[in-house]
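Human:
Class, as today's exercise, you are to examine the entry below, and be ready to discuss the fold:
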Amino acid sequence: MTETHRTLPPEALDAWAAELRARFDLGAEDIPIALILDLARDVANGVARPAAPLSAFVAGLVAGRAGGSPDDVRATVAAVVELANAHGTRG
């Protein structure tokens, strides 16, 4: 039995993003890969690793409810990152 590796090299991530854009009729600006990866990193480091995908989902949900524009996504991601950065400082 061979082990399946789930870590994607950058070009595979780009290919996956292209598949998502094609399937859901999205533009390149609709999937800000670096922004979402930074969000995941900051939440994983500031809260916990399992909180990263949950936070990415919540950011997408909130941004979509706000209108779903690239500006809505950036503002929501910034708010989630700010919350994650403050998470360990509360006492």
Summary: The helical segments are 10-24, 33-46, 51-66, 70-87. The chain has a mean pLDDT of 90.
